[in-house]
Amino acid sequence: MNALLVLSGGMDSTSMLYAYRNGIRLAVNFHYGSNHNDRERESARYHCGKLGIELVEIDLDFMTRYFSSSLLSGADAIPEGSYDSENIRSTVVPFRNGIMLSIAAGLAESRGLDTVMLANHAGDHAIYPDCTPAFAEAMDKAIEAGTYPGIRLYTPFTHLTKAEIARKGADAGLDPCQTYSCYKGGETHCGRCATCVERHEAILTAGLPDTTPYQSTELLTK
Amino acid sequence: MNALLVLSGGMDSTSMLYAYRNGIRLAVNFHYGSNHNDRERESARYHCGKLGIELVEIDLDFMTRYFSSSLLSGADAIPEGSYDSENIRSTVVPFRNGIMLSIAAGLAESRGLDTVMLANHAGDHAIYPDCTPAFAEAMDKAIEAGTYPGIRLYTPFTHLTKAEIARKGADAGLDPCQTYSCYKGGETHCGRCATCVERHEAILTAGLPDTTPYQSTELLTK
Q1: What count of CB pairs under 8 Å joins A to B?
Q2: DSSP category for residue B35
Q3: Which segments of chain B have a pLDDT < 70?
Q4: Which end of chain B has the smaller Cβ count within 10 Å, N or C?
Q5: What is the pLDDT of residues A112-140, one digit of tens each?
């Protein structure tokens, strides 16, 4: 496998970077104008540098300009509390994974790679339609049909929970607390938004210590 | 149908704009750094203005920077002569239609539209993998699965020839000679590149006069 990984710099894709680093030749990080993209990108740079994997950074300015999502509307628009469908739905960025995977497929073809990887996972299925197995299967077929070399999409975390992913990353040498998740995008994790709550719970469930500094811990599982 | 059309400003997508204008609420034009994108965009603007359809213009700078294709390498790199596979293959921009359709899907969801349209057609199948019916079917499924409202892809020109498309456009009021095709991207059509040769032949086969000014006519069907 000669793969390109879509790497946000969050816990899931960074765990994939570590767990599959022997087959990953290139990572691509996208900035689509969300509050947390700057911090995520720092994390992506740090881990690619550490593992000696090339990182391409692509800015998708048109998404800030033309797309609707609370994730693109400043930290105050981000809902707080648990990561359930109703609460988090406003953060959906329409067809984000479709856009990132399509660009990744074109980049993979340009670089002579055979596989594109994405760290979608079971915890996101109910909320983000472009994280579901049905989406990933159809997108795999579209990329295979639409590229000369028949590039394939590989999503080995599709049926894992976020805790299982944290465990996989840790087993491969990643400290999950050295990744960035907070949707508010502050210098330290807020500890109140749904992604902070979900991240903390996953790290604990994986049996790992959560040494992430949080601004507030009152909404976090003890 | 409330559709968004991917509109290059070339003959095929402009014919679709005219033929389906009653259902098209928005058009999107992409600039990916090719030699002919500037001229195509002028054509897209002209026809949207004429029909009173809103046009969103999106620039994909990363493609110029990171993608390989003779289409992105200046006019001198464009092959001349007939539009057969071997000759035109260097002009493939990897997964271009996948990228444009994915962005169009996200934009359609942001605008509350239910359909994305693309003017891929039979003449391009052999050359561009992301113009084939197999690609369009898989991409339709991916967009339906990956968007909240289940947006669909509609490609009614998939099985038409370019001549049939020229005819459809003309029947709907378009003068095909008022669109732009030349891959070299000059102020007037070169008449030597494969797209000029193909365009001219399609217009004649459709039984229409070709009043396009060409810099050279020696390679064109009489």
Answers
A1: 131
A2: T
A3: 83-87
A4: C
A5: 999 999 999 988 777 889 999 999 999 99
Q: Is the pLDDT of residue A83 over 70?
A: no
- Asked, for residue B100, whether it belongs to a domain, the answer is yes
What's the CATH code of the domain at B157? 3.40.50.620
Kindly state whether B64 is in contact with chain A, defined as any CB-CB distance less than 8 angstroms.
no
How many separate domains does chain B show? 1
Does A139 sit within 8 Å of B142, measured CB to CB?
A: yes
Q: Domain limits at A16? A: 3-75+93-176
pTM: 0.94
Strand partners, A31: A59
Preferred mutation among B54, B103, B131 to probe A, highest tally of A CBs within 10 A? B103
Helical (H) or strand (E) element with B39: helix B37-51
Task: List C-alpha distances in Å: A121 to A15, A16, A81, B145, B200.
Answer: 12, 11, 20, 15, 50
Interchain CB distance below 8 Å, B66 and A96: no
Residue A200 inside a domain? The answer is no
Tens-place pLDDT, residues A28-39: 999 998 888 999
Contact criterion met (CB below 8 Å) for A95 and B143: yes
Q: Is residue A88, in this structure, part of any structural domain at all?
A: no
How does A51-74 read in b/e, with b if 16+ C-beta sit within 10 Å?
A: eebebbebbbebbbebbbbbbbbe
What residue in B sits closest to A134 (Cα-Cα)? Answer: B145
Residue B91: closest CA among A151, A195, A148, A52 = A148
